[in-house]
Amino acid sequence: MTRYTIAASEAAALLLPWYDRHHRDLPWRVSPPMARQGIVADPYHVWLSEVMLQQTTVQAVKAYFDKFLRLWPTVEDLASAETEDVMKAWAGLGYYARARNLKKCAEAVSREHGGRFPDTEERLKALPGIGDYTAAAVAAIAFNRRSAVLDGNVERVISRLYAIEAPLPAAKPRMRQLIAELTPAERPGDFAQAMMDLGATICTPKRPACSLCPFRPKCLALHNADPETFPRKAAKKEKPLRLGAAFVAIDQAEAVYLRKRPETGLLGGMTEVPGTDWTARRDGATTLDAQPFAAAWQPCGAVSHVFTHFELRLSVYRANVIAALPGVEGWWEPIASLKTQALPTVMKKAIAQAIPHAFNQG
DNA sequence: TAACCGTGGAA
DNA sequence: TTTCCAAGGTT
Fold first, then answer.
1. What is the pLDDT of residues A251-305, one digit of tens each?
2. So what's the pLDDT on residue A236?
3. Bases of chain C with protein Cβ within 7 A
4. Domain range annotation of chain A
5. Which residues contact A82 (CB under 8 A, 6 or more apart)?
6. Looking at strand B, which nucleotides approach a protein CB closer than 7 A?
7. A205 CA to C5 C1', in Å?
């Protein structure tokens, strides 16, 4: 029983010329002409972009990538930064464990590797926040290693090329084996980026542009099935609804009472306004138990926010207080500087619900 | 292994 | 409006 195979040399011959013509120009990339002259992207830039791009769109990452390079031009600069400043700069990008691990990784590179990123997959993967994908990507793109780079784009391309019927995530080891066989020794970094560009622009989740695809003569799904139905995926479960309350206190100088969340877990290490736990209960009786201090709390509506594994509905309460007294666990932050705080989106929504002009220009 | 962990844009 | 999901990692 012989299985369907595509030679790495054939894959390279089809994909690399396509990449030379149709690659995306991205801020963290070295263009193919430069790459063929032996110019390699800065490992710090590659690593920073790859971490930011985990489960995040290119469009969302661009502005953050520029901001981080402006604030911390080298990995040593980032290693020396205050974690709090890193969290503030990351605010809004999501998955905040990435920011905490980014800082830890920079420190490890500085301390354990003399400020230079290791150039092998194995040693890269030993660093915080670097898993299978990111280790392979940095090794291939920044160090020209022939590593098997498998991300969501590549999974989709591979699943269609070989018409893989097994659903994700169970099929992932099989896909890793296939991409390892398919990756050429020639220009492995460009090959990896080409696979991802192909998945992002041609071999898209919906309505793939198969007529423009360089792999068209080799794609089993195109010839034997419907490419759009790949990759097969296990059914996902629905998100439960959780309820909670948030308290927005404003003093006479228009400062808001904020506090820091625990370092781990949901929105770990980020800033918040005080509030209740977020539970599935509909019990309003305990709401005021969570007030940061006694005040004339007025209900001012609710905000909804969708997290990865649940939906949240927050009842928002507002109180105007005479003076900024308490400060037991938090601090008073002027409205003017709220936008530079480490506030996750759900907290900005809650504050904006209580103070509509809080995040206005100026 | 499966649950946990954000956000915003597109269709 | 709802659904999907984007260059995943950690526990």
1. 999 999 999 999 999 999 999 999 999 987 765 556 788 888 889 999 999 999 9
2. 83
3. 4-10
4. 8-229, 241-354
5. none
6. 3-9, 11
7. 9
Q: What share of chain A is helix, strand, coil (3-state, %, to 5)?
A: 45, 15, 40
Q: Give per-residue burial for A240-251: e unless 16+ CB within 10 Å, then b.
A: eebbbbbbbbbb
CB atoms within 10 A of CB A262: 10
> CATH number of the domain at A8-229, please?
1.10.340.30
Q: Residue A143: which residues within 8 A CB-CB, separation 6 or more? A: A40, A43, A119, A120
Q: Is any atom of nucleic acid chain B found less than 7 Å from the CB of residue A129?
A: no
For domain A241-354, the question of CATH label 3.40.50.150 is answered with no
Quick: pLDDT tens for A70-101. 999 999 999 999 999 999 999 999 999 999 99
CA of A180 to C1' of B11 (A): 34
Q: Integer distance in angstroms from CA A301 to C1' C1?
A: 21
> For residues A12 and A243, what is the distance between their CA atoms, to the nearest angstrom?
52
Nearest to A240 by CA among A184, A173, A301, A310: A310
d(CA A179, CA A181): 5
Which segments of chain A are extended strands (E)? 241-250, 255-260, 271-272, 298-306, 311-320, 330-334
**pLDDT exceeds cutoff 70 at A151:** yes
Q: Scan for tokens 């969708």, then name that residue.
A: A306
Catalytic residues of A: 50
Q: What is the pLDDT of residue A362?
A: 46
What's chain A's average pLDDT?
94
- Determine the nucleotide nearest to A344 by Cα–C1' distance: B6
- How many angstroms separate the CA of A285 from the C1' of C3? 35
Question: Is the distance from CB of A270 to CB of A233 less than 8 angstroms?
Answer: no
For B4, which residue's CA is nearest its C1'?
A309
d(CA A31, CA A41): 9
Please state the rounded mean pLDDT for residues A319-328. Answer: 76
